[in-house]
Structure formats: structure tokens, C-alpha cells
Amino acid sequence: MSDSIDIINAFALMTNFVILPALSYGSQLALGALAVTLVYSILRFSNFAQGDSMAFGTMLVILISGYMISKGWTITGFPTAILAIPLALIGMSIYLLTMDRLVYRHYRKIKAKQNIVGITASIGVMFVTGGIVRFILGASAQRFGDGERFIFSVREFKAFTGLEQGIALKTSQFLPVTIAILLVSFLFYFLQKTKTGKSIGAHSDNTELDLIS
After folding, report:
1. CA-to-CA distance for 154 and 164, rounded, in angstroms?
2. Is this model's pTM higher than 0.70 or not?
3. CA nearest 64: which of 56, 131, 97?
4. What's the average model confidence in pLDDT over 136-162?
5. Going along the chain, which residue ranges are E strands?
6. Residue 120's closest CA among 37, 43, 48, 32?
7. Cβ-based neighbour number of residue 164 at 10 Å
8. pLDDT tens sequence across 76-93
């Protein structure tokens, strides 16, 4: 019996320090990879600026959240960052559409080779976007703890289970995993089951034939 309890305690400890952080971080990478995959599968274009674009969106969330907190526009027990995300998405969309119009649109018009010219252009956008983020936030590491609220803490887990080791789950860990699962599921349904999604797939498979049809 004691051996079983020790194994459960060890698993709880590993979950708290390895599994949950890995799932959270992996989900964040999956969201970025999802965007890269979509752009490449449709436009045959490797967007090297995707990581810095995500950093730009994160910067907007930090700035908007800080402003909302300074004005007292908060909800008790609810991460202010979630309230800021819709505004950050709008700002990030405007920035990306502007970059597309200023940079990528020209190369699409002249039908430049996306695997060479497009990659080089995206590297330039990457440096510009990263420079903007560093100019506004600085080059030092940023700690943003607004979303680090506990869904349940180690103490609560121990009290509920009676184990020696506990598990803590933060909203900043729960949300990336949940959002990644929902978005991947939605995207799969959209591409496989809807007319628009199937049209996107057809365009990706054969652009010339799709334009003719």
C-alpha cells in the first residue's frame, strides 16, 4: 500500500513540475506552429516572422493589460490579460495586414519565388517586428504575472487528496492547453467539413486548377 502511495506522490510531483509546464509550453508552440502550417500549406511560404509576430501580440496584451489595471478596469478573480486579448488581436491584425500590404503583396504581384524571396522578406519583417518589441518593452526579460492565478493550489490539492505531494494548476497553464485543443479541433472541422475549408485545401493542392475552376 505504501509503495502505491509513493508512486502516486511521485507522479503528482512530476505532474506539477514537468507535465503541466510541458503541456502549457507545448501548447503555446503548437499555436504558433498552427499559424506557420496554415500559411505554408496555402501560400507555400515559410513565414520566419511568425515568432516575432506572436511576441508583438504578447506585447500588446501586456501594454493594454497594464493600462486597464492602472485605470481600475478589472474583474475580481479574473485575469485582466483575457480582457485585453480581443483588443490585442485587433491591433495585431492591423499590424500584420499593414506588413502584408507593404512587403508581401508586392512579391505576390510579381510572382516572385516564395521559397527564396518570400523567406528573405519574412526574415526582414522578423527583424523589424522584433526591433519594435524590444524598443517598446526593452531587451531584458519581462515577467507578466497577471494571469498567474490558481485554479487550485498545492495546499488545496493536498487537503482534498490527502497526499504528501500536491499539484497546482494556474490559469496561465490551463488556458493555452484549452485554447490549443479548441482551435485545432475547430480548424480540423473547418478544413474537412465546410465548403470554404475544402476550397482552401483545393487551392493548396493545385493553385492553377483552383483559379480556373
Report:
1. 10
2. yes
3. 56
4. 81
5. 150-152, 169-170
6. 48
7. 12
8. 777 888 889 999 999 999
